[in-house]
Write a structure and sequence with these properties.
The complex is a heterodimer. By secondary structure, chain A is of the alpha/beta class. Chain A is built from 11 helices and 11 strands. Chain A folds into 2 domains: 242 residues, 3-Layer(aba) Sandwich (Rossmann fold), CATH 3.40.50; 46 residues, Alpha-Beta Plaits (2-Layer Sandwich). By secondary structure, chain B is an alpha/beta fold. At the A-B interface, helix 4, helix 6, helix 7 and helix 9 of A face helix 4, helix 6, helix 7 and helix 9 of B.
Chain lengths: 310, 304
């Protein structure tokens, strides 16, 4: 099963939930692969105390011009819908960060002066930590476009053979893939969650949290994905949030209470699971719900394997 | 006219709440909500909308089923795996269909279609608004769920804000930025005078602060750092402050961890309006520092 952990609002505890859940399910004997798809701020490794290595670059193809052939006719610049090409003073200029690598310029060049070169925009790193497989996507700082890194991460993550835990994973059904998605509801979030089997939306019972949950809910609905909610920093003010979840038929999978000790453990870089019995109980409950869902619906969506679009 | 952009890298560090509190101290200001895919500033500033407009950007391939001959050329040239075979056509192969979420609007399929069956249609990605608030005018926006072009929308709201700010007596543009370091963040940096980065003293908070500092340095925009929830890890706060000092990066101040910000949020008001809480003095000190930096900063905005 492929499970995405998302939220509209940032800082609601997505990564804390993803890493704690992944750890616990591994301890319970199921192999887990955790994909850190928050490629602009990949933090799973920090919460797991892991040091992923073996950097593999993620490339976007960008055009390369044969200046001997190019007549600076400007058709490539006209064809580019992303304003990545300009024809100035008899030369074609490329703004590589704006290039989506679509290849439209190649098609229109009348003198075949264009081929492509790979341009690195990010990297994929991997490691094992306490039986958990972590695969991280990381966008280079200064790059604007996260989606190709997320797509490549999912391509690699879903294709990586077998599991890496003590448990023998004979079938794909035994493996749980957890994707830690980026915040928001724009194309990076969609690329991380589309084609998954279930989406956990982490929220908090504040006006900001509820507002952004509505947006995330709408996005997930358009992608036709089943979803449930984890309430973080729960407390006395959950009524409106609970009403929204019941109207939307969103299961509340667990509630993590608002406790200073949890925030302090997080700030110190310690797993809140060890620091707070209430936190541990909440994650236990979540893991039970996830296990129940896996046994109810063990299918792995094959569409998920090719990674997201957007 | 000066522009201050509030960023964080990591989400949920208190960017929006701090922006609203600064707006209360600095008013009148021109407010901009540049967190276009999860905007929250309006929940505090309660804008009264004066003008609303669709945000049309980019395009999307549309296949005419009457003309599609099912050859599959479009699917083969699409680099975004956005075209898939749909229902069978008796005369030819399966008709092709476009997945609008996957389509990036490059137009390559339209160019290559031998039957001329594909046209590119402009897409509405969201809306933007001009409003009035008790803090001053405000330009904000909403991206449709899953939409693209968030960077362009950020550039649009900022440019509207600049135009309108020159028409009014406001001399500070205060921009609540998006999280992360990607296109909407880069779009919120060009021409800004100062970036205030809101950070929390956790390993993730510091890691993401570092990414944003690298980005602001890369684009040549001065930055200052505010440490929120500092007392959750006093040691980390102290070592972060000394590291930043050693690197010559100013620290605007510390704000404690407490329930005041979320209480204000629940009441739909800014922190300053909450009155008698210690965070008010802390935020005021941050604003004094930031304001001083803005006044000293005489140079022209850097354009990319």
């Amino acid at each position: 099963m492929i499970l995405a952990i998302a939220s509209g609002k940032g800082g609601t505890g997505k990564t804390t939930v993803a890493t704690s859940l992944a750890r616990l399910i591994v301890q319970r004997g199921r192999p887990v692969r955790l994909l850190d798809a928050d490629v602009e701020a990949p933090n799973c490794h920090l919460l797991l105390g892991a040091a992923p290595g073996g950097s593999e670059p993620v490339y976007v193809p960008v055009p390369r011009f044969d200046t001997d052939r190019c007549t600076a006719c400007g058709r490539c610049a006209e064809a580019c819908r992303f304003n990545a090409l300009a024809c100035v003073a008899g030369r074609v200029l490329l703004a590589a960060e704006l290039c989506h690598g679509c290849g439209a310029c190649l098609d229109v060049c009348p003198v075949q002066a264009i081929d492509e070169r790979p341009r690195p925009i990010g990297e994929i790193r991997r490691c094992n930590v306490d039986g958990l497989r972590l695969i991280e996507g990381r966008m280079h700082i200064g790059e604007p476009v996260a989606v190709p890194v997320i797509r490549q991460l999912r391509r690699i993550g879903h294709a990586e053979p077998g599991a890496t835990t003590a448990v023998d994973a004979e079938t794909r059904q035994d493996l749980l893939t957890i994707i830690d998605a980026p915040p928001g509801t724009a194309c990076p979030m969609v690329a991380a969650v589309r084609g998954t089997d279930y989406v956990i939306l982490v929220t908090e019972p504040t006006p900001f949290g509820l507002h952004d949950l509505r947006l995330a809910r709408e996005t997930v609905r358009q992608l036709e994905l089943p979803a449930g909610v984890v309430i973080n920093r729960g407390g006395q003010t959950e009524d409106e949030l609970r009403r929204f979840c019941s109207e939307e038929q969103l299961d509340i999978l667990t509630t993590i209470p608002d406790r200073r000790e949890i925030a302090e453990a997080y700030a110190a870089g310690h797993p809140p699971y060890d620091a707070s019995p209430e936190f541990a109980a909440a994650i236990d409950e979540l893991a039970d719900q996830v296990e129940a869902r896996i046994s109810r619906d063990p299918l792995t969506t094959s569409a998920g394997a090719s990674g997201g679009g957007a | 006219m000066k522009e201050l952009v509030v960023l964080s890298g990591k989400g949920g560090t208190g960017k929006t709440s701090l922006t609203a509190a600064i707006a209360a101290l600095a008013r009148p200001v021109m407010l901009v909500d540049a967190d276009v895919d999860a905007p929250n500033l309006h929940l505090v500033t309660q804008p009264c909308m004066q003008h609303s407009q669709d945000f049309v950007a980019g395009s999307e391939a549309v296949i005419d089923p009457e003309r599609c001959i099912g050859c599959g050329q479009c699917a083969r040239v699409c680099r975004f795996e956005a075209i898939h075979p749909g229902a069978d056509n008796v005369d030819y192969g399966p008709l092709q269909t476009v997945d609008p979420v996957g389509c990036e609007g490059c137009g390559r399929c339209a160019t290559r279609c031998p039957a001329g069956a594909i046209r590119m249609e402009p897409t509405t990605c969201g809306s933007w608004y001009f409003s009035t608030t008790e803090y001053g005018p405000m330009v904000h926006a909403g991206l449709l769920p899953g939409a693209e072009n968030s960077g362009k929308l950020v550039s649009l709201v900022r440019s509207e804000a600049r135009d309108r700010a020159t028409e009014t007596a406001v001399n500070l543009i205060l921009t609540d930025g998006p999280p992360g370091i990607g296109c909407p963040v880069i779009a919120s940096l060009s021409g800004a005078h100062l970036v205030l980065i809101v950070c929390e003293p956790s390993p993730s908070g510091v890691h993401d602060l570092r990414s944003v500092l690298t980005l602001t340095h890369h684009f040549g925009v001065p930055a200052t750092v505010c440490i929120n929830k500092w007392d959750l890890n006093a040691d980390a706060t102290q070592s972060l402050e000394s590291e930043l000092a050693a690197e010559g990066i100013p620290v605007a101040g510390r704000i404690r961890y407490g329930e005041a910000f979320s209480r204000a949020q629940r009441q739909g008001i800014d922190l300053i309006a909450l009155g008698d809480v210690p965070e008010v003095a802390e935020v005021s000190a941050v604003w004094d520092h930031v304001n001083q930096m803005l006044q000293q900063n005489q140079r022209l905005p850097i354009h990319q």
